[in-house]
Amino acid sequence: MAERQLVQGNEACARAALAAGCSFFAGYPISPSSEIAELLARELPGRGGVFIQMEDEIASMGAVLGGSLGGRRAMTATSGPGFTLMQEHLGYASLAEIPCVVVDVMRGGPSTGLPTSPSQGDVMQARWGSHGDRATIALAPGNVAEVYTLTVEAFRLAEALRTPVAVLYDEVIGHMREGVQLPAPTAAQLGRRTGPIAPPSPDFLPYQANKAGVAMVPDFGRGYRFHVTGLMHDERGYPMSDHAQVAALLERLERKVAAAVPAVPPERYRLDDADVVVLAYGIVARTARAAVDTLREQGVRAGLLRTRLLWPLPVASVTEALSGASLAVVAEMNRGQWAFEVQRLAGGHVEVSPYLKAGGSVITAEELVEHVLFATREGVGA
Amino acid sequence: MQAPMVVDGTSIGGDEQQRGVTLAPCPGDERPGAGSEKRLLRYAMMPHMLCPGCGHGIVFEAMLRVLAERYETLDTVAFVAGIGCSSRVVGYVDACTLHTTHGRPLTFATGLKLARPELDVVVVTGDGDGLSIGGNHLIHAARRNIDLTCVLFNNEIYGMTGGQLAPTTITGAYTSTSPAGNHERPFDAAKLVEAAGATFVARAQSYRTQVFEDIFARALDHKGFSFVEVMTDCTEYFGRTNRLGNGADLLFSQARAEQAIETDLAERPTLTPVPPKAVRPVMEMGVLHESRRPTLEEAMGLTGEQR
Lengths: 382, 307
Ligand SMILES: Cc1ncc(C[n+]2csc(CCOP(=O)(O)OP(=O)(O)O)c2C)c(N)n1
Ligand code: SF4
Ligand SMILES: [Mg+2]
Description:
The structure holds two protein chains of two kinds.
Chain A: E1 4-8, H1 9-19, E2 22-27, H2 34-43, E3 50-53, H3 57-69, E4 73-78, H4 80-96, E5 100-108, E6 114-118, H5 123-128, E7 137-139, H6 144-161, E8 164-170, H7 171-175, E9 177-181, H8 187-190, E10 227-229, H9 243-257, H10 260-263, E11 267-269, E12 276-280, H11 283-297, E13 302-306, E14 309-311, H12 315-323, E15 327-332, H13 338-346, E16 351-352, E17 355-356, H14 365-380
Parallel strand pairs in A: 2-3, 2-4, 4-5, 5-8, 7-8, 12-13, 12-15, 15-16, 15-17
Antiparallel strand pairs in A: 1-9, 5-6, 7-14, 11-13
Helix pairs in contact in A: 1-2, 1-6, 3-4, 11-14
Chain B: E1 5-7, E2 10-12, E3 21-22, H1 55-70, E4 74-81, H2 85-88, E5 95-99, H3 105-115, E6 120-126, H4 127-133, H5 135-144, E7 149-154, H6 189-196, E8 200-205, H7 209-221, E9 226-231, H8 235-241, H9 247-256, E10 258-260, E11 270-271, E12 283-290, H10 296-299
Helix pairs in contact in B: 1-7, 4-5, 5-6
The complex binds thiamine diphosphate, iron/sulfur cluster and magnesium ion.
């Protein structure tokens, strides 16, 4: 049994990366994520790993992708402005199917915004920040222990599905300390990189997909000679522009990331008979849980769906949670991002009343209770 | 006809002065094993996308000749390129080839080299790719002295996007986005990269492939960041827009603009004297700087590591 220790969120993230076999980090300093880079700068070199501080976040992401193609489990960590600069290379990684993990410790935006205050403003950037229809995976841990387990899971998903995986949490989770256990991952939790099963040959197809829809791309320098490009490509990895083939490629890339949905299930709290469903993630889910308890004490049948997966959208668990409810409250620290997705899924059958706060502080249980009571009186009760 | 424009006191845009250069027979043809570089081509990717007469193809072929002398197969050689006509050539070589994003090949190459120091990593970039959008990465790669060989194909224009202004376009030259002639001063890439800390800096021309081959071979041998700027010609845009003639005419204009560093360019072509109408400003060619200091991988203790 792993010992219990007091650990900061960002430290848990870095230690998870090490536990998950990450041996390559390239990054550029930015609050509130820098502790991850600082810890890995100390730890990686002694373990045969590579740490490099690049000249900016575009370069960091490029280096991560080069390191990953070299066969290493690779990651970077950043915050909003840096995440923005990484978007072109995230699109590249999705299309060229290069595994990597990107941690975004969210701060207030837009622009330089609130460098050391919490926010959940990058949810849509994680989904649509790069041009084109990019299929994305984004995880949202809600506490320090989960920063650890979901960072390990991010590596497993990235390597198995050969795609970038984002881990999004806010400044408060990044900087707070909690008593946690950080158990060494099992072999199943570590997973393995999807790679070629065929030996090198002139007819080898590096971008041939397996049953899960994942291209079986080799690492560089292992006897295979092949081409990697950010252009649309065929199974040989060669550029092509056949409309039907391009459509099929985009469809496959979207299909494969659906595997993240069962892998990262939500937490359901007092939902079974819930009339009012609160939906929240990250730090907000903690206060939302307290709000649910208070509401129950006051006779409101409230429950919480805490998603740990932002993208791909966990459609089934959201619609199921909404099915028996008369009111859904999405609480998030932005001007409304995930809330729109819930509204879309509710489809007018369930009233959705978002509680949004984008000023740099965490939503409190009290204000959420007040919002729900107001909404039930105004909306559902009327 | 458009009036010839004045560049640094000489004119650009005439067409009569291009000839008058006596060339020695192409030496490559006589060497043992000539033509064997073709085994390194990725035929399945053909036909290639370069225009007839494009200087990029000449340089690419010369690169292959050097590689064919050194490697049986290119299993342990990675070619990393950005976006541009120049960058596209890496797709045609049967190696580990990585066609990245515009301006960023050096960032991918840095990650790859640190992850796998035992691989030989060659970066192919264009003047737009390497000096404009990717200029920051170029100076930092040079500063780090990471053991990469970077070949910058300088055609003084953006070929791929249709002939727009580049940071290397000669002052006064016409491009589709400098219709009144370029108001800006071009980069001296070699000086820039040397100042940033590169330990091998050279300039060559598609006009004299033998010299380029010698320089490229030395760049491959060099431990540390080696940078070769090679002047190539975009016949389709630079040549046409500035009325400089066809591919061969452009090559002769390179010849006129060369100021050889004698030690490296022993074999000088005989130039018939013509009026001082250099199409391009005269530039130093050859190995311009060579020194030795620890590479990034050495400093990080990564060399010799076999994973
Ligand atoms: C981020 C981004 N901006 C712009 C482009 C468009 N673009 C493609 S190639 C190119 C210029 C290439 O010029 P150069 O590197 O000199 O290559 P050449 O084609 O001349 O060999 C540009 C601007 C792009 N692909 N990506
Ligand atoms: S457009 Fe210019 S640079 Fe591009 S292939 Fe044609 S001649 Fe070469
Ligand atoms: Mg160019």
